[in-house]
Amino acid sequence: MTRIISATVERWPVAGAFIISRGAKTSVDVVLCTVGDGKHVGRGEGTPIYYEGETAEACAAAINAYDGPLNRDALLRGMPRGAARNALDCALWDLEAKQAGVPVWQLAGLAPPAPLPTAFTISLNDPAQMEADARLAAAKGFALLKCKLTGEGDRARIAAVRAGAPDARLIVDANESWHDLDIAAEAAALAQLGVEMVEQPVFHGREDRLVGVKAPLPLCADESCHTRADLDRLGDFDAVNIKLDKAGGLTEALALAREARTRNFRVMVGCMLGTSLGIAPAALVAQGADWIDLDGALLLAKDREGGLPLKDGLLHPGTLWGTGQ
């Protein structure tokens, strides 16, 4: 009989600082969930959605208090979306794979996972520092850079990033900071510098701000999109950013990706800060995505043993989670 063995909180240091328009982080707290059936053990990791008030302690408590059926379909009905459900859902996938002796991708009816060209995040900083960070990332083989913006001085920042990495593809994350700006004009200026997508320009819950906006770049919903239930109100976005912590697990994330494509949204797959244990299931959703941003473990000072291998900017499938062994 499957049971929850434990849900615990872990703190992982960030390499330097991760800076966005809402502030800087020097560490990240994650919740580690372990389930088992007496013979096999499955693990999953979730990172609390801090801008929604989640904490790792509350997520661990929610998992430990869960007394419903321990199957993924029941979780979708009996537990709210968020990092707690993500950690438990992914732990159940890992356990099921070991019980069946096959990898999760096969259980989910997916193709074998291929190496992924993940973006590398250029944290918010002054233009000179962002230029230096971009140059270093490009030298490490990252061909796609995701630049954090703040709504002030963004054009100078991206011009600096472009100078530091003239051949890199660029996407930008406004983290809701463009809400009161001329979004079309800002996007047009960045398009001239080779930016190919703008993530979450407006406040979540205020998607109406995009009505009538004719931006020359695709606009991608992040904070505005969590699960399939959100798609009905995202018609003024061109793309959605799928994150397992927002969706509440691999089960919902896979369903969201399918439904989004059916509705002609382009798909980005992203992540919160966290270790490779949290990134590995997201890498399955990311197969075939338009943009992939799974550098959450790469931004840490250290990763779990057996973390996903990185070579020339490509994130390779690892053995940390979901192998069925």
Describe the 3D structure:
With 325 residues, this protein is α/β, with parallel strands linked by helices. The chain has ten helices and 14 strands. The chain has an eight-stranded parallel β-sheet with strand order 5-6-7-8-9-10-11-12. It has a three-stranded antiparallel β-sheet with strand order 1-2-3. Helix 5 links the parallel strand 5 (120-122) and strand 6. Helix 1 crosses helix 3 (83-100) and helix 5 packs parallel to helix 6 (154-164). The chain is globular, with a radius of gyration of 19 Å.
What value does the Rg take, in angstroms?
19 Å
* Intertermini distance: 19 Å
Estimate percent helicity: 25-40%
The backbone outline, from C-alpha atoms, is: globular
The tally of helices reads: 10
Hey, roughly how much beta strand do the residues contain? 15-25%
Instruction: Give the integer mean of the pLDDT values.
Output: 96
In order across it, which strands form the biggest sheet?
5-6-7-8-9-10-11-12
Question: How is the biggest beta sheet arranged?
Answer: 8 strands, parallel
Q: Find the count of extended strands (DSSP E, 2+ residues).
A: 14
Report the order of strands and helices.
Answer: EEEHHHHEEHEHEHEEEHHEHEEE
Poorly predicted spans: none
Going by helix content, strand content and strand pairing, the class is: alpha/beta
Topology:
Blueprint: E1 3-20, E2 23-36, E3 41-46, H1 56-65, H2 72-78, H3 83-100, H4 104-107, E4 116-117, E5 120-122, H5 127-139, E6 144-148, H6 154-164, E7 169-173, H7 183-191, E8 195-199, E9 219-221, E10 239-242, H8 244-247, H9 250-262, E11 266-269, H10 276-285, E12 291-292, E13 310-311, E14 314-315
Parallel strand pairs: 5-6, 6-7, 7-8, 8-9, 9-10, 10-11, 11-12
Antiparallel strand pairs: 1-2, 2-3, 4-14, 13-14
Helix pairs in contact: 1-3, 5-6
